[in-house]
Amino acid sequence: MHWVYLIVAIISEVTATSALKAADGFTRLWPSLLVVAGYSSSFYFLSLTLRSFPLGVVYAIWSGVGVALITLAGWALYQQRLDAGALVGIALIVAGVIVLNLFSKSVML
Predict the structure, then answer these.
(1) Are 2 and 49 in contact (CB under 8 A)?
(2) Helix or strand or coil: residue 107?
(3) How far apart are CA 29 and CA 27, in angstroms?
(4) Is the distance from CB of 89 to CB of 77 less than 8 angstroms?
(5) 14 and 69 in contact (C-beta within 8 Å)?
(6) What single DSSP character describes residue 25?
(7) What are the pLDDT tens digits along the chain (109 aa)?
(8) Residues contacting residue 42 through CB under 8 Å, at least 6 positions apart
């Protein structure tokens, strides 16, 4: 169940961060409310995940997957361009999360 909590935390964070641009400095009500709700939800579910997994591992997965998804959301929602360096960087982040999950004994307690 803790993996589900982590996935919800990541999706909430990505949603909130994507809405942050649309909130336009908190001058637009609905995107601003989505930012607050998304970050609140993200931190709540992140805290539930920390009951079972070590802080460093959880944060590495949460932030790494979040960075990759935010970059893709910026590309899809806001037409932000991704050059070769961005794509290689995302691939390295994803590879790091995969290595952490497959080869680290720290992930499972």
Answers:
(1) yes
(2) coil
(3) 6
(4) no
(5) yes
(6) T
(7) 899 999 999 999 999 999 999 999 999 999 999 999 999 999 999 999 999 988 888 988 899 999 999 999 999 999 999 999 989 998 998 898 888 878 877 765 4
(8) 9, 10, 12, 13, 16
> So what's the pLDDT on residue 108?
57
Of 4, 36, 30, 3, the C-alpha closest to 17 is 36
Residue 68 Cα distances to 39, 45, 73, 103, angstroms? 17, 19, 9, 21
Q: How far is CA 101 from CA 15, 91, 92, in A?
A: 24, 15, 14
Domain ranges of the chain: 2-103
pLDDT score for 109: 47
The structure's pTM equals 0.86
Assigned token pair, 24: 């336009």
